[in-house]
Amino acid sequence: MIAYQLSIFAENKPGMLARVTGILAKARISIRATTISTADTFGVINLIVDDPEGAEKVLIGAGMTVHLRRVLAVLIPDQPGGLDKLTQLLFRQGININNAYGFVLECSEKAVFVVDVDSIERTEKLVEKNGFTTLDTEALSAIEPFHYMKY
Amino acid sequence: MEIPGVGTTFLILLDREGFNDVMTVKVEIDRKYFSGDLKQLEGLRNTIREELKNDILITPRVDLVQPNSITQGEGKAVRVIDNRKD
After folding, report:
1. Is residue A64 within 8 Å of residue B66, measured between CB atoms?
2. Does chain A have fewer CB atoms within 10 Å around its N or its C terminus?
3. Are A101 and A114 in contact (CB under 8 A)?
4. A-chain residues within 8 Å CB-CB of B41?
């Protein structure tokens, strides 16, 4: 399954991220994960949200420059070696990772590793064939980040 | 300048740093060009810098900015702001 990452162009100055989060908060859109890459005076904010199309619409409506990128959100075990199994598989198949980040879903149980690769369909088939589960936007929205009651 | 990815508006800022004059060119990006790839944006900035260097023989700083962020009032567009004192 393919997930969508929201990429937002942002000048590297105070308040840019706050502007994005303010717009999304007002639209009641939940953020699952975020990364920021900068090249001194500008950068790209990457977000995994529960409503990518809705987020794209409100951010563009606010004058922002936004692109929806297709990414793979791979479910991995939250334990030593959990990520290594996936990265070794991608390495063996010569798949280059352009961007990646992860977040824990359930401590010591499950995590999600988001990868941005060139050959997304091929990578999707490869990881699923090797026992990994990929999540789409709906699946990412349905899962609880943490089970606080458990701890 | 016909470079894919460059928007419609630019602004040149002239500043003095110590004994040196510094030129910064703010360039609005083309919304359609943005793919979320930082390397692509850095490539665009380098291309603009090289093109300008070939034309004006100095290497300016280039800042990529949001479309429609360089405000222009009514009348003739302001393309250069000279912040140098004296």
Report:
1. yes
2. C
3. yes
4. 9, 39, 42, 44
Pick the residue with more confidence: A93 or A137?
A: A93
Q: Which residues contact A78 (CB under 8 A, 6 or more apart)?
A: A104, A105, A106, A107, A108, A109, A110, A111
Burial class (CB within 10 angstroms; exposed 0-12, middle 13-18, buried 19+) of A34: middle
Helix (H) or strand (E) holding A29: none
Sheet of strand B80-82, all strands in order from the earlier edge strand to the far edge: B61-65, B20-29, B6-17, B80-82
Cα A127 to Cα A57, A108, B31: the distances in Å are 31, 21, 34
B83 Cβ under 8 Å from any chain A Cβ = no
Asked if residues B35 and B14 have their Cβ atoms less than 8 Å apart, the reply is no
3-state helix, strand, coil in chain B (%, to 5): 25, 35, 40
Per-residue pLDDT reduced to its tens digit, A135-151 = 988 888 776 655 444 44
> CB of A118 within 8 Å of any CB in chain B?
no
